[in-house]
Amino acid sequence: MRIVQTAFVCIALLASSLVAQNPHRPSIPVAPPRRPGTSLTIVVTDENSVVVPDALVVLTDTQTADVLRVQTDAAGRGRFLNLNADDVFTIRAEKGNFYPITKQDLRITGAQTLEIVIPHVQELKETVNVTASSEEIDPAQIADTKSLGTPEIINIPYPTSRDIRNLLPFLPQVIQDSTGQVHVAGAATYESTDVLDGFDITAPVSGSLSMRFSADAVREIEVQSSRVSTQFGKESGGIINFNTGMGDDHLRFDATNFIPTWQNKKGKGFSFDKWVPRATVSGPIKKGKIWFFDSADAEYDNYVFKDLPNGSDHDPFLRGSNLAKVQINLRPSDIVSFSFLNNVQDEDRQGLSLTTPASATVRRDFNAYLGTIKELHYFSGGALLETGFAWNAFRDEYNPQGPNPFVITPNGSQGNYFEKFHGTSRRAQGIANLFLNPFTEIGRHEVKVGAEVDQINFAQQYQDQPFLLLRADGTLYRRSVLPPSTALDRNNLEIGAFIEDRWSPFERLLLQPGVRFDWDEIVRRPLFAPRVAGTYMLGAGHNTKISAGIGIYYERTHLDYLARAMTGPRLDYYYDALGTTQVGPPLVTSFLVNQNLLRQPRFLNWSAAIEQKLPAGIYGSVEYLQKRGTDGFIFQNLNTASDLFGNYILTNDRRDRYRSVQVTARKHFRGDYNVYGAYTHSYAHSNAVVNYSLNSPIFSTQMGGPLPWDVPNRVISWGWFPTPFKRVDLVYSLDWRTGFPWTAVNQNQQIVGLPYSQRFPAYFSFSPGLEWRFTFRGYALALRGVAENVTDRKNPAFVNNNVNSSSYAAYGGFGGRAFTARIRFLGRK
Q: HSE (CB half, 13 Å, CA atoms) of 125?
């Protein structure tokens, strides 16, 4: 702890010295001076008086045609110096996902400050002929950031559009696996951090993106996969950042899919399919001072599986969420916001598939909540202090369908699942980030420092019954006995701090050096992660940008590995060829962790990119990314004589490799129409891909190979266009990729050949649709119909991977063509 205290003291001293710098130095971004004269200071805010950093402000002298540009700093400020007081100017402020604002006939009579309000993009525009800012090259964006704003969230047709997570794969860095979890730049799900309005919402134990919220609540999604700021730590994959809405001085209400849908499957006539309503209401509590925002969604699904027999072919599913927020502007220098997010979920037959019948599924209940408070304080000199606290809790429970023994056969599972589980986890999170007054010293500097403290606790309870493995001829091969009852509880304290500078030695060059410090009470090793990245603009029109960066990234301690080592031993009883006589004593398998020997997984990531404005207003980019991971967590079997039993100890022997080349192109059309395309060639491999666990019957020596989400080739595209018919737009999305790898096993559940050496067929889905916007009695509505997977490509969801099965390598869970409709009530026109 002495090292931790010393680090915080050093950061505090450095922050104090920087805040106390010479007040006569320029404290905000300054455009290059042109000639002696007066000055203009710009302050850019949104509709709730929250400052907008990295907004582009362009000042044009209408008499000389001189053009000056400046990017706002963390306090939303920019300055133009030495302007001619006799001239007339036009000024324009813009940023992605905001409406640009232009002011004309501006005369500057002396040192002057001008506040410009650029509102966020709204689905229902309040004025005619208003379009969102076009996606141009952003010289202030250093990280490899791909984002989806309000227009993309509304218009891209993605499968199961009630779940915002299903939109993420339409960003080129993101792959979604068959369980719905996402992987950023070849990383495991737990190697990325999920952020909601500035707070970490990653599930503390599994590391999954488990919290749900209405798609209509999300204002913007950002995914950063390389050159990530030191403000974010404990992730080698990247950041998934969700920003949600807030009310303004207009009362707004909208609703989506408020009419239930029906289905006709298996020739049984029409029956209830699903009801997935969403509703959002927002507005002022006190105009100009206090606003509220509330977004709720619910889902009731009656999933029907065509491949299963009647009576055991459906899986009822119920889920709901509500996000409530309030913002209070106490005074111009202090803004406080509160939020509360609640999740509930219930599923009767989770895991239902061709090889897992209804009896072998589990009944699952899940709920979670997140409460946050955040304050923004603006100092008079231009510094900004952000502080916040969040409390995040999860409860997960599943139960078998009955007491019958669980039986695994080459052709699938039988009986009732063997395990009952109840788990809770909590995270208390405190953050503090200080954006200091910019200053000039061999160029311009914007320094920020910050700290974060997380207190994590998890508790799990298991009740297990023995499970059986049968051979292809139906005889008993193995009987596995887990501890009948297990309870475990664990805490972890995580501390992080960072310091970072955005340094512009001259106008076209921007550098971002920084260092991050992390420590937790499990590994107990001080970790220092230096990083540096930068951009350089080429050409007189700022039409070419080169970006590059390199840095050290440490992962958080993945608590699921510790939980596996706390669940006790497994006894495996083996039987003769007739399945009646036990052969020898039981073999014992256990998982062990020696915390004193553990090191934190470490990655060296570097990337380089070039962005270019092409003819016809097309913006293209090419990016190369490489990640080399060492000291990764993996269980190794200490018993070298057999892979059927032994002590599995958690080691740091895992080595991961990822590299990718990504090409993207985007075109913005008048009227807020867009088309986007991307191709990614990637390689995601590891020297240890066998994921052992106590309740998994799979056996093998540890081997290397592709990771389960390795996709060497992928193409995505989406867009929306006008049609010859008034108020009718064409929308589409396209996704093609190499199939996921899978592993073959035999009837003894031993891996056959190399792990993940087989692959699913290539995945392809093309989904066009039409949306009609119309007005009914003064209210705006939008009706959409989409033909999902219009080519009826049979994309399988799972495979029978047992080589001794009569249906080995048979694929199932095919996702064929589906027609979906969406109706939205957008409020009064």
A: 12
